[in-house]
Amino acid sequence: MKTLALNNGATMPAFGLGTWKSAPGEVRAAVIEAVKLGYRHIDCAWIYGNEAEIGQALSELFEQGVVGRDELWITSKLWNDRHGPQDVEGALRETLDNLGLERLDLYLIHWPIAFEKGVTFPETGAQMLSLEKAPISETWAAMEKLVDAGLCRSIGVSNFSVKKLASLLETARIKPAANQIELHPYLQQPKMVEFCQQHQIALTAYSPLGSKDRPARLVNAGAPVLMDDPVVAQVASAHGVSSAQVLIAWALERGTSVIPKSVNPARLAQNLQAASLALTSQDMERLAGLDQHLRFVDGAFWARPDGPYTLANLWDEEVG
Ligand code: A2P
After folding, report:
1. Per CATH, domain 10-215+254-263+291-315 is 3.20.20.100
2. What's the pLDDT at 319?
């Protein structure tokens, strides 16, 4: 299986299982099935609300001897209300407790967005803290201490722009090992890919299949469905594979990690098989032509008229 060499010497399996939107009641079986099929990387987050069930799956897998802890790569993420340096270790310990683990492989700052402690989803802008009030550099220093304490092997970020990565690199003692962002043929982010290559920051592609099961509040009327794209379908039929498999192979071919979500055994197997699908340079060129800088997870839920965040200061780009 393809791996990515991180800037701290760790080796991350490029292909992993996404667990955002995997409901409690489904995710335990999905993780067990995935690991039995050969998945070795599981992407989690405190906010997904399913870590404890993933922990049950992991402990069953370890007890049954299906895999050892060191054969799995487990990522999780710090929620927005725990950016206070005094809260970071407690947040990781809660996640470790949920997952039944002593150490994570990778811990990410989930969003460059901060809330008052205890606020899971703010109801007013006043419950949000600006990055001036809750500087990322201070949260990052607390993340670095987690590595020093042996509670996670690598640290990184998620949903960070090039500008925010560059500013983090100025103060970081430990360089971020990874940035997890939305990436797929409709959102190719070539400048980000180039910046991360230059700075040895691994990219992980979330929502690689276009996240068609995203919550209704994230669905904009008229948004195209990535998996129904005719070019993707043509490439798929030329290889005798599915559109989902093309999208996964595309991400791996670009040198990123990719974490498609599924809770369905047949699709879990199909997605893993895509890790050995080779696309041609002509396929890659055709897929490159699909870019429309379209975010399915556009961050609009953090942009409130009464709060400190806007789409422009979240993504650090012109938002049309
Ligand atoms: P399911 O979990 O029922 O398989 P993303 O990873 O971009 O967030 O997309 C996840 C969505 O894609 C889920 O609705 C998931 O449904 C679906 N999905 C995952 N794998 C496949 C596949 N191979 N073919 C079709 N749909 C898939």
Report:
1. yes
2. 66
